[in-house]
């Protein structure tokens, strides 16, 4: 199964909470209480998001955390990158270097296409989109031949 880390998941929850109340400055303890994430974890996530430039922080009386820019200008890809690094399902074409099999791999190009599609989806989804209710449940893709014994041209 492909998953983002728990910290990345928590970061999207924290960012969603801040986006839903974007006109307010929030303390770490308030964010922890509102999201149900433990305070030490919330603090760690908030600090990482500040380092990534997605949040601003202010110290002292009335200080706390606020989005660095409007939620519509923050992509899910930016949040994911701040915890996971470069987005990619495989090493094919990654910025870290070449896979040892890359020179003889016959499916490399298609993995790169998949990586690009996943990245494009994460870039297209903004934080503003994330705090809106999902329009409809997403259904899994069906196989081309759903009926047993039915063979379509071009399918095995």
UniProtKB/TrEMBL annotation:
Any one of the GO CC terms: cytosol
Stretch forming the signal peptide: none
NCBIfam families reported for this sequence: rrf2_super, suf_reg_Xantho
Sample GO molecular function, one term: DNA-binding transcription factor activity
InterPro entries assigned: ArsR-like_HTH, SUF_FeS_clus_asmbl_reg, TR_Rrf2-type_CS, Tscrpt_reg_Rrf2, WH-like_DNA-bd_sf, WH_DNA-bd_sf
Protein name: SUF system Fe-S cluster assembly regulator
PROSITE patterns: HTH_RRF2_1 (PS01332), HTH_RRF2_2 (PS51197)
